[in-house]
Amino acid sequence: MQMKPEEIQALIDKAKEAREFSYSPYSDYMVGAALLAENGEIIIGCNVENAAYGPSNCAERTAFFTAVSKGLRGFRAIAIAGGKRNGESDFAYPCGVCRQVMAEFCDPDSFLIIIGKSREDYRVHTLKELLPESFGAENLNF
Ligand code: THU
């Protein structure tokens, strides 16, 4: 499903708000995500790091796991806003693990991944573009 520029910009705004909550004392790379569910709800997430590094969680997965824990299952789009703490914002693309989590819950042809450097400067991709030929439940005959 297509999104209007105003809808995209509103989602980027939420991702930027979520980024302010980033707990990233080790990388100083702050990421926020805003996940739009099919029912219109927007669930936010930020990256949450850990002194042991391994237990750290990306912003996108924080948003997905929060949403799924609230009973939500269908999703339309996610906006991501990231960059170094005191630097310029980046085009912060989701890591491979987060793309795989998206594939568990989202339709690859219609789910939109919005990379928001700013509300004027953003890129929109389908999940299929960022995770082609993915492994999924169908491989396990589910
Ligand atoms: N990070 C995210 O939150 N999302 C991504 O897709 C890539 C990386 C976070 C993880 C870590 O806290 C910091 O950015 C640096 O890798």
Summing up helix and strand content along with how strands pair, one would put the structural category as alpha+beta
| Sheet of most strands | 6 strands, mixed
Distance between the termini: 25 Å
Uncertain segments of ≥5 residues (pLDDT<50)?
A: none
> What is the residue-averaged pLDDT?
97
Gyration radius, to the nearest Å?
A: 14 Å
Strand content: 25-35%
SSE order, as H and E?
HEEHEEHEEH
List cofactors, ions and other ligands: tetrahydrodeoxyuridine
Count of alpha/pi helices: 4
Characterize the overall form.
globular
Please provide the count of β strands. 6
State the helicity in percent bands. 25-40%
How would you explain this protein's 3D organization?
It is a single chain. With 142 residues, this protein is α+β, with helices and mostly antiparallel strands. It has four helices and six strands, in the order H-E-E-H-E-E-H-E-E-H. Strands 1, 2, 3, 4, 5 and 6 form a six-stranded mixed sheet that branches. It is globular and about 45 Å long. Tetrahydrodeoxyuridine binds at residues 24, 27, 29, 31, 47, 49, 56, 58-60, 94-95, 98.
